[in-house]
Design a protein that fits this description.
Helix content is 11%, strand content 32%. It has 107 residues and is mainly beta. A five-stranded mixed β-sheet has the order 3-2-8-4-6. A three-stranded mixed β-sheet has the order 1-5-7, with no helix packed on it. Strand 2 and strand 3 (26-31) form a beta hairpin.
């Protein structure tokens, strides 16, 4: 499976109807609306995804984007190396392509 891509712009991207999220060995289908971050959508769906600051500074919501593309307004908690390897901050990640999103918290 190909690795997802993160773009580092503040542009709001269209969101799909749902995305795949893996947490603690369980896959979830998470509904999402346009303009909603992956973390906010997960929390709204009742999934206890890891997070603290929700501002892209702490890194506790760092996850691996297995597929799809996202944009992130703030990436302060990620090194360039982690970004290059496909890691994203779920609190900042907005879907930016029609390709299905798969976000994996089981790092």
């Amino acid at each position: 499976m190909s690795q997802g891509k993160a773009k580092h712009t503040g542009a709001e991207a269209p969101a799909g109807a749902s995305f795949r999220l893996t947490l603690d060995g369980t896959d979830h289908s998470v509904p999402i609306t346009a303009g909603e971050t992956l973390l906010h959508a997960a929390l709204a769906a009742g999934i206890d995804a890891p997070h603290t600051c929700t501002q892209g500074r702490c890194g506790s919501c760092m996850s691996w984007l297995r597929s799809g593309e996202v944009t992130m307004a703030n990436t302060k908690a990620l090194s360039k190396r982690k970004i290059d390897r496909g890691y994203v901050l779920a609190c900042q990640a907005l879907p930016s392509s029609a390709e299905p999103i798969w976000l994996d918290f089981d790092l």
